[in-house]
Design goal:
Elements lengths: L35 E9 L2 E6 L2 E7 L13 E6 L9 E6 L5 E4 L9 E5 L3 E7 L7 H14 L2 E7 L7 H6 L7 E3 L2 H4 L3 H10 L3 E5 L6 H8 L2 H8 L16 E4 L6 E4 L13 H4 L26 H6 L5 H11 L9
Parallel strand pairs: 3-5, 8-9, 8-11, 9-10, 11-13
Antiparallel strand pairs: 1-2, 1-4, 2-3, 4-5, 6-7, 12-13
Amino acid sequence: MRRYGKNPDEDDIRVRPNRKGNRPRTHIRPKHEDAAEGMVLTVDRGRLTVLVDDRIVMAMKARELGRKAAVVGDRVAVVGDLSGKKDTLARIVRISARSSVLRRTADDDDPYERVVVANADQLAIVTALADPEPRPRLIDRCVVAAYDGGLEPILVLTKSDLASADKLLETYSTLDIPYVVTSREEFTDGAELARVHELLDGKVTAFVGHSGVGKTTLVNALVPLERRRTTGHVNAVTGRGRHTTTSALALPLEGSEGWVIDTPGVRSFGLNHIDPSRVILAFPDLEPGTADCPRGCSHDEKDCALDAWVEGGHADPARLYSLRRLLATRERREDD
């Protein structure tokens, strides 16, 4: 066997040929200490629009991230050409830990969850009171997804000039969800818009709602045309510099440090990924009562300890009813 000395010549070392002709793979990854921090504004087919300081930069995910994907709202580290000039491209080399995640599945039989938005503080659930009729089951599903992902739900009820909001608000009164009611006439004079703006001020808010409820109209009113152009002028969603709500888009809230994230209209909101044990955390008055529940308790069965907890006066029975209604929403169709 041939042995090499302490300082062998390069010619003495056998190197295994690389058939692919590329550089040898290594487990050592660059640290990119000089990477700039940015926020993902929109994503389309591998191209990401990122806000770096006051510049809009086009970027792609670096290979070392593997299958980890960045979504709208992610805080990322970016290297490369950060000038924001036309035809330039940067690389996303790190994705920071997320404070919250809004997830959904295509339906309740779909095992694959999709992350819609990251790092949002609130989920504004936009629902028309008429034309189209409200869908309480869809609202329930959005509320559950918000609680599960660490977001605070908000109800934005539109078209109150066509129907009263009282019945729908009564359904959610025990959840203490902030809400605002708007009408088509009042919305144009700025009074209703100011109330919505107050709820969003200084926070990152994702908007969700099905087609026809006025979600995009509301977002357009909150973010003036000039701000939308500035943010979306290099948007790769359409290639024409405008957003058609075919993917999520983050927009700066006028006169505030807050952000509005417009998401595509939803026909369904699957909850196959939801862990019921996390939903109870949104009910701090009920959560201590689960200590005596049997293992794997669904909180809607004969031996559930929450019944005794409520009977003992520790919580309002209406709160337990609301919890069980939300937990049962996975087993009910959204158009029931």
